[in-house]
Amino acid sequence: MSPHTLSAVIEKHIRQLCLTDFPCGRGSLRKTVDGAVETEAEETDSLLDLLICPHSPWWHDASWSPQALTLRKLAVLSPERLHTDFVHKYFTTLRILDEDVSVVDGGLLKFSKLEELVLSANRISEIPADNLPCTLKVLELRANRLSALSSLTRRPPPHLWYLGLGSNGLGSCQDTADLSGRHWPQLVCLDLGDCEFQDQRALLGALTTLPCLKTLVLEGNPFTLAHSYPGLTVDTLPQLSCLDNSWITPEDRHRFQGLAKLSDVTVDQASVTVRVGQVKGIPDPLMSVEQNAPDFPVVTYSYFITYEFLTDQTSVDQKVATESKCDTEHVTEDADPQSDKNCEREKSAPDTGELNPEEACCDIAPVSSYSTSKLTWSEHMDFSDTQVHTGSDLGGLKKFLNRGLSLRVEEEKVLSWPAASEDVAVAKPGRPVKEKKGGKERESPIKSGPTKDKSKDRKRKSVSELVQDPPVRRSLVSVHVPLQSLVRGDGKVDVLCDLGILHTESVAEATPTCEKVLEKKIKEEKKKQDKDSKRRGGKGKAGREREADLVPASSSECVRLQPATLELSVELEKWESESKARGLLHQKQNPKSAETGGLN
Description:
- The protein is α/β, with parallel strands linked by helices.
- The chain has a domain at 270-420 and 463-508 and 561-572: C2 domain (Immunoglobulin-like, Sandwich), CATH 2.60.40.
- It has helices at residues 6-16, 44-52, 67-77, 84-90, 173-177, 200-207, 231-236, 250-256, 337-348, 357-360, 394-403, 450-464, 484-487, 505-536, 540-548, 550-555, 578-589, 591-596; strands at 93-95, 116-118, 138-140, 162-164, 189-191, 215-217, 242-243, 246-247, 270-280, 298-310, 314-315, 332-333, 367-371, 375-376, 380-391, 405-418, 433-437, 440-444, 466-468, 472-481, 492-500, 564-572.
- Strands 1-2-3-4-5-6-7-8 form an 8-stranded mixed sheet, with no helix packed on it. Strands 10, 12, 13, 14, 16, 19 and 20 form a 7-stranded mixed sheet that branches. The chain has a 5-stranded antiparallel sheet with strand order 11-15-9-22-21, with no helix packed on it.
- β5, α6 and β6 (215-217) form a beta-alpha-beta unit.
- Residues 35-39, 313-331, 335-362, 422-452, 507-511, 547-558 and 594-600 have low confidence and may be disordered.
């Protein structure tokens, strides 16, 4: 018998109960009825205590069946009753969880009075109905490897009222057909959560044939991401009392009444709204520009946010086609080591979701890049970017949401030069110009007045005729936002992304300069203190205080950066009522009247 068969695992648990060993069974240390054995004998209550006490060496974990502990007690009270057939028929509940079971064999039929069988988190790919006792009422198969129900529906247990099939690879047309009342006439509770059903109308049509169905779990299936869910389910199954662990109220019935009759509405379509709000904490890129810097080139910085979404999803906002897609023509990308570090940090971080983002990349549909509008730098840059992505690839959308959304903060730098070469050498007023006369250099100050005005005019002229270099883009930071909660039933995700401390190009250049200035000031101050101490014969108290205060005073002149943050909201659109769905249908059928309706 294979160690991965169900009957072998159950028999192992039964042997671990030690029903024939002390303190169970017929041991020599038990008191007899006539009291013949008095030396070193144990009372029955003492033996039972050894079974119950968690600190006892004879205590065993009996969570796999409620009958396990009572059977051990029976082995103390009436050991003569414990024969093999009696033990098998004694069990009515078996819970074999995460024990690497792969085969449900015929040995399970020995448990002829079994009513509840829980086999969650195993490796079962097929459930032969012939190997299940006909007395079963509860069958839990969550988180296995089931890909079809055909073997289970050949001759299912006739009295089954609970069936748990969640977190399996079910979702084919044949699986939908196998969930009919012909196979499950007494089914009251059905768990299909986190499977792969995509055709909402077909599945609901099959579930309407279940006459006793009262409790249903569907969240986690691709079609639950559609805007018609859960309204269409509530209206299609009037006998349902509980959906996705929430009671269906009369108000819910009233709001969604009539959705099932809207045959012209596309139900298997999802709309995802992505909103990018404020970004705070990006350092000023011009904070290190010197006052005496040359007039040209003119350097401009702009910032925008990019993210990826499914390629087959279309955006309602027209600017996706113009501004949203990243322009890759004539763009030079500057790699940022900090961005790479952030990526490495994301990969090494534990994934809170059920799907590894790196593994999911190979399975989901291709993605395209979208971006917000570009803004010049400010302490609080409010992008206020809202884009709605719609599509019917619900399976791809589920995998994409399990993977999560990746955003990047992009910086674009543009250098502008005068169109005419003669305008390049524009001198600033007040700066001396070196001239050569008679082989000697002399300095003559530029005259103010007319010369100053000419300089301004020339500069103004050159600014109006600037020629821009190709923009240089680089990623300041990337962040990964988990979205698994949308698949599990949440309608919206609001998050404030912590981007950490960012370093723009100018700040990175200013940092070593600041360190050099600080080091130079410290050396000069130490030289002064050494001279003063030699004159006074020692440092003295005042000198030591000045030296202690030197570093904090100088270091305050350096750039102090704050962590950057990004506001993000991702929301799944849902029909709130039948009237809203009907309004959308009317808008699609009469787009012109919908546009002019507010003017009449």
